[in-house]
What we know:
single chain, alpha+beta, five-stranded antiparallel β-sheet, 14 strands, 26% helix
Amino acid sequence: MNEQDLCQKRLLDLSRQADRKGIVLFSDFLNLNELNIYHQSEKLFATRTECFGGIPCAERQMIAFLPDALYYDWEYPISALKITPAYPKFAEKLGHRDILGSLMQLGIDRCKLGDILVGEQEAYLLCEETVADYFAEHLEKIRHTLVKVEPCSLCDLKVTQEFQSQDGIVTSDRIDAVIACVYHLSRSQASLLLRQEKVFVSGKLIQNPSYTCHADDIISVRGYGRFIYRGEYGTTGKGRLKIHYDLYAN
Protein backbone atom coordinates (compact mmCIF):
# COMPACT_ATOMS: atom_id res chain seq x y z
CA MET A 1 0.00 0.00 0.00
CA ASN A 2 1.50 3.36 -1.06
CA GLU A 3 1.57 6.54 1.03
CA GLN A 4 -1.50 7.99 -0.68
CA ASP A 5 -3.57 4.89 0.08
CA LEU A 6 -2.33 4.84 3.68
CA CYS A 7 -3.28 8.48 4.17
CA GLN A 8 -6.76 7.91 2.75
CA LYS A 9 -7.19 4.80 4.92
CA ARG A 10 -6.27 6.74 8.08
CA LEU A 11 -8.76 9.48 7.28
CA LEU A 12 -11.55 7.02 6.46
CA ASP A 13 -10.87 5.11 9.70
CA LEU A 14 -11.14 8.33 11.72
CA SER A 15 -14.43 9.19 10.03
CA ARG A 16 -15.89 5.73 10.77
CA GLN A 17 -14.75 5.89 14.41
CA ALA A 18 -16.25 9.35 14.87
CA ASP A 19 -19.53 8.15 13.39
CA ARG A 20 -19.61 4.98 15.48
CA LYS A 21 -18.67 6.66 18.78
CA GLY A 22 -20.65 9.85 18.21
CA ILE A 23 -17.68 12.07 19.08
CA VAL A 24 -15.49 14.53 17.20
CA LEU A 25 -12.13 13.11 16.15
CA PHE A 26 -9.22 14.95 14.60
CA SER A 27 -6.45 14.13 12.19
CA ASP A 28 -2.88 15.31 12.63
CA PHE A 29 -1.80 18.36 10.65
CA LEU A 30 -1.89 17.53 6.95
CA ASN A 31 0.49 18.89 4.34
CA LEU A 32 -0.60 19.98 0.85
CA ASN A 33 -0.37 16.48 -0.64
CA GLU A 34 -2.39 15.00 2.22
CA LEU A 35 -4.97 17.79 2.02
CA ASN A 36 -5.37 16.98 -1.66
CA ILE A 37 -6.05 13.34 -0.74
CA TYR A 38 -8.59 14.55 1.83
CA HIS A 39 -10.41 16.65 -0.78
CA GLN A 40 -10.44 13.72 -3.21
CA SER A 41 -11.97 11.48 -0.51
CA GLU A 42 -14.67 13.81 0.84
CA LYS A 43 -17.55 11.84 -0.68
CA LEU A 44 -16.34 8.64 1.02
CA PHE A 45 -16.45 9.86 4.62
CA ALA A 46 -19.11 8.61 7.04
CA THR A 47 -19.28 12.02 8.73
CA ARG A 48 -19.21 15.70 7.93
CA THR A 49 -15.74 17.23 7.95
CA GLU A 50 -14.14 20.61 8.49
CA CYS A 51 -10.52 21.67 8.19
CA PHE A 52 -8.61 24.39 10.04
CA GLY A 53 -4.99 25.21 10.78
CA GLY A 54 -5.37 27.57 13.74
CA ILE A 55 -5.41 30.75 11.64
CA PRO A 56 -7.14 31.78 8.43
CA CYS A 57 -5.26 30.70 5.29
CA ALA A 58 -3.02 28.22 7.14
CA GLU A 59 -1.18 25.88 4.78
CA ARG A 60 -1.00 22.91 7.16
CA GLN A 61 -4.45 21.99 8.42
CA MET A 62 -6.17 19.55 10.75
CA ILE A 63 -9.36 17.71 9.77
CA ALA A 64 -12.29 17.44 12.21
CA PHE A 65 -14.69 14.54 11.67
CA LEU A 66 -18.16 15.51 12.91
CA PRO A 67 -20.86 12.89 13.54
CA ASP A 68 -24.47 13.84 12.77
CA ALA A 69 -25.79 13.46 16.34
CA LEU A 70 -23.31 15.84 17.91
CA TYR A 71 -24.46 17.09 21.31
CA TYR A 72 -21.51 19.05 22.72
CA ASP A 73 -19.31 22.04 21.85
CA TRP A 74 -15.82 21.31 20.60
CA GLU A 75 -12.60 23.05 19.64
CA TYR A 76 -9.62 22.07 17.54
CA PRO A 77 -6.78 20.74 19.75
CA ILE A 78 -4.38 23.38 18.45
CA SER A 79 -2.02 25.42 20.61
CA ALA A 80 0.06 28.47 19.75
CA LEU A 81 3.55 29.21 21.06
CA LYS A 82 5.48 32.47 20.84
CA ILE A 83 9.22 32.12 20.29
CA THR A 84 11.46 35.10 21.11
CA PRO A 85 15.23 35.49 21.61
CA ALA A 86 16.29 35.38 25.25
CA TYR A 87 18.88 38.08 24.53
CA PRO A 88 17.63 40.17 21.59
CA LYS A 89 20.85 42.19 21.34
CA PHE A 90 22.84 39.07 20.40
CA ALA A 91 20.14 37.23 18.44
CA GLU A 92 20.60 35.98 14.89
CA LYS A 93 18.01 36.51 12.19
CA LEU A 94 16.13 33.19 12.25
CA GLY A 95 14.09 31.85 9.36
CA HIS A 96 11.41 29.22 8.96
CA ARG A 97 13.94 26.50 8.12
CA ASP A 98 16.05 27.29 11.21
CA ILE A 99 13.06 27.00 13.53
CA LEU A 100 11.68 23.85 11.91
CA GLY A 101 15.09 22.18 12.05
CA SER A 102 15.43 22.82 15.79
CA LEU A 103 11.91 21.55 16.42
CA MET A 104 12.53 18.35 14.47
CA GLN A 105 15.73 17.72 16.45
CA LEU A 106 13.54 17.35 19.54
CA GLY A 107 12.17 14.11 18.09
CA ILE A 108 8.56 15.16 17.38
CA ASP A 109 6.88 14.02 14.16
CA ARG A 110 6.29 16.75 11.56
CA CYS A 111 2.58 15.87 11.54
CA LYS A 112 2.27 17.35 15.05
CA LEU A 113 3.34 20.77 13.77
CA GLY A 114 1.24 23.30 11.94
CA ASP A 115 2.38 26.55 10.35
CA ILE A 116 5.35 28.56 11.58
CA LEU A 117 4.96 32.33 11.24
CA VAL A 118 8.20 34.30 11.30
CA GLY A 119 8.26 37.99 12.20
CA GLU A 120 11.01 40.52 12.74
CA GLN A 121 11.58 39.89 16.44
CA GLU A 122 9.52 36.80 17.13
CA ALA A 123 8.03 33.66 15.61
CA TYR A 124 4.80 31.81 16.27
CA LEU A 125 4.38 28.05 16.17
CA LEU A 126 1.08 26.24 15.75
CA CYS A 127 1.12 22.70 17.06
CA GLU A 128 -1.05 19.99 18.55
CA GLU A 129 -1.97 20.52 22.19
CA THR A 130 -0.27 17.25 23.16
CA VAL A 131 3.21 18.55 22.27
CA ALA A 132 2.93 22.22 23.25
CA ASP A 133 4.24 21.79 26.81
CA TYR A 134 7.12 19.66 25.56
CA PHE A 135 8.24 22.36 23.12
CA ALA A 136 7.83 25.09 25.75
CA GLU A 137 10.10 23.15 28.10
CA HIS A 138 12.73 21.77 25.71
CA LEU A 139 13.16 24.27 22.88
CA GLU A 140 16.02 26.36 24.26
CA LYS A 141 18.20 27.21 21.27
CA ILE A 142 17.75 27.79 17.54
CA ARG A 143 21.10 27.76 15.74
CA HIS A 144 23.28 29.78 18.13
CA THR A 145 20.45 31.88 19.55
CA LEU A 146 19.00 31.15 22.98
CA VAL A 147 15.22 31.46 22.90
CA LYS A 148 12.29 31.49 25.25
CA VAL A 149 8.99 29.82 24.39
CA GLU A 150 5.66 30.75 25.93
CA PRO A 151 2.01 29.94 25.20
CA CYS A 152 -0.10 32.57 23.51
CA SER A 153 -3.65 32.92 22.23
CA LEU A 154 -4.58 31.92 18.71
CA CYS A 155 -6.17 35.36 18.45
CA ASP A 156 -2.71 36.92 18.67
CA LEU A 157 -1.64 35.13 15.49
CA LYS A 158 -4.29 36.69 13.26
CA VAL A 159 -2.23 39.82 12.82
CA THR A 160 1.20 38.20 12.41
CA GLN A 161 0.89 37.06 8.80
CA GLU A 162 2.17 39.85 6.57
CA PHE A 163 1.32 40.23 2.91
CA GLN A 164 2.75 42.19 0.03
CA SER A 165 -0.17 43.54 -1.99
CA GLN A 166 0.63 43.73 -5.68
CA ASP A 167 -1.03 44.23 -9.05
CA GLY A 168 -0.40 42.56 -12.36
CA ILE A 169 -1.61 42.34 -15.94
CA VAL A 170 -2.56 39.01 -17.56
CA THR A 171 -4.16 37.90 -20.80
CA SER A 172 -6.69 35.78 -18.87
CA ASP A 173 -7.44 34.52 -15.36
CA ARG A 174 -6.19 31.02 -16.20
CA ILE A 175 -3.92 29.71 -13.50
CA ASP A 176 -0.90 29.35 -15.78
CA ALA A 177 -1.18 33.01 -16.77
CA VAL A 178 -1.63 34.16 -13.16
CA ILE A 179 1.34 32.12 -11.85
CA ALA A 180 3.50 33.39 -14.71
CA CYS A 181 2.59 36.96 -13.80
CA VAL A 182 3.11 36.61 -10.04
CA TYR A 183 6.49 34.85 -10.25
CA HIS A 184 7.74 36.46 -13.49
CA LEU A 185 7.81 33.22 -15.44
CA SER A 186 6.86 32.28 -18.97
CA ARG A 187 3.52 30.54 -19.55
CA SER A 188 5.41 27.37 -20.52
CA GLN A 189 7.36 27.45 -17.24
CA ALA A 190 4.12 27.89 -15.29
CA SER A 191 2.51 25.00 -17.20
CA LEU A 192 5.50 22.81 -16.36
CA LEU A 193 5.02 23.50 -12.64
CA LEU A 194 1.40 22.39 -12.99
CA ARG A 195 2.41 19.17 -14.77
CA GLN A 196 5.03 18.51 -12.08
CA GLU A 197 2.27 18.57 -9.43
CA LYS A 198 3.70 21.62 -7.67
CA VAL A 199 0.59 23.81 -7.69
CA PHE A 200 -2.20 23.65 -5.10
CA VAL A 201 -5.29 25.83 -4.83
CA SER A 202 -6.75 25.91 -1.31
CA GLY A 203 -5.18 22.51 -0.65
CA LYS A 204 -6.27 20.86 -3.90
CA LEU A 205 -3.72 19.74 -6.46
CA ILE A 206 -4.26 21.53 -9.77
CA GLN A 207 -2.67 20.22 -12.98
CA ASN A 208 -4.95 21.75 -15.61
CA PRO A 209 -3.41 25.01 -16.90
CA SER A 210 -6.85 26.24 -17.97
CA TYR A 211 -8.18 26.24 -14.38
CA THR A 212 -9.91 29.59 -13.80
CA CYS A 213 -8.71 31.44 -10.70
CA HIS A 214 -11.42 32.72 -8.38
CA ALA A 215 -11.28 35.60 -5.92
CA ASP A 216 -9.67 34.58 -2.60
CA ASP A 217 -8.12 31.38 -4.00
CA ILE A 218 -5.02 30.53 -1.93
CA ILE A 219 -2.46 29.37 -4.48
CA SER A 220 0.68 27.52 -3.34
CA VAL A 221 3.53 26.91 -5.78
CA ARG A 222 6.21 24.59 -4.45
CA GLY A 223 9.62 26.23 -4.58
CA TYR A 224 8.16 29.72 -5.05
CA GLY A 225 5.71 30.48 -2.24
CA ARG A 226 2.04 31.29 -1.76
CA PHE A 227 -0.32 34.09 -2.66
CA ILE A 228 -3.99 34.95 -2.42
CA TYR A 229 -5.59 35.78 -5.75
CA ARG A 230 -7.91 38.72 -5.09
CA GLY A 231 -9.45 38.91 -8.56
CA GLU A 232 -9.56 41.31 -11.47
CA TYR A 233 -10.39 44.99 -11.17
CA GLY A 234 -10.43 46.24 -14.75
CA THR A 235 -8.91 45.95 -18.20
CA THR A 236 -6.15 47.70 -20.11
CA GLY A 237 -6.65 49.55 -23.36
CA LYS A 238 -5.62 46.37 -25.17
CA GLY A 239 -8.19 44.25 -23.34
CA ARG A 240 -5.84 42.53 -20.89
CA LEU A 241 -6.95 41.92 -17.31
CA LYS A 242 -5.70 43.92 -14.35
CA ILE A 243 -5.42 41.63 -11.32
CA HIS A 244 -4.66 42.09 -7.65
CA TYR A 245 -2.96 39.54 -5.38
CA ASP A 246 -1.43 39.30 -1.91
CA LEU A 247 1.95 37.56 -1.63
CA TYR A 248 2.75 35.86 1.65
CA ALA A 249 5.68 37.74 3.13
CA ASN A 250 6.87 34.86 5.35
